[in-house]
Design the sequence.
DNA sequence: AGCTTGACGGACT
DNA sequence: TAGTCCGCCAAGC
């Protein structure tokens, strides 16, 4: 049957943006939500990412909250997976918080919407 | 059908 | 500047 393109399309959009996050960069849920037009629904982005399990091409570990905290690390394989992946890309994480977050921050609305 | 939860964010105190 | 509360939107119970 046809799945809800309206609803599922939202997921695809989220995944599409997350996939476009450059290597060694991070972004926030709000940035993605804002880019998708649902700035007030940053939670939906996180909820959408909750369904990204199995999608290996979606670097969800590059998506953190506004504070640069690895709020979703607990949803990965292990509590170290997210931090480990970020560290592998040159992003240092201290106490679940990205160091120099603003420096590595990547805004899709700013980079993709020129 | 209503209440609670959640990978968030912003405003208020 | 930090801690707390409220609002969003959808899913789960």
Sequence:
């Amino acid at each position: 049957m046809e799945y809800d393109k309206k609803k599922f399309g939202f997921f695809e959009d989220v995944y599409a943006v997350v996939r476009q996050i450059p290597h060694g960069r991070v972004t926030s849920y709000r940035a993605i939500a804002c880019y998708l037009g649902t700035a007030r629904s940053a939670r939906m982005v996180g909820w959408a990412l909750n369904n990204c399990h199995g999608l290996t091409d979606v670097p969800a570990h590059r998506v953190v909250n506004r504070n640069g905290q690895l709020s979703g690390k607990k949803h990965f394989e292990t509590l170290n997976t997210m931090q480990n992946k970020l560290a592998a890309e040159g992003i240092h994480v201290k106490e679940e918080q990205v160091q120099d977050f603003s420096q590595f921050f990547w805004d899709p609305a700013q980079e993709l919407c020129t």
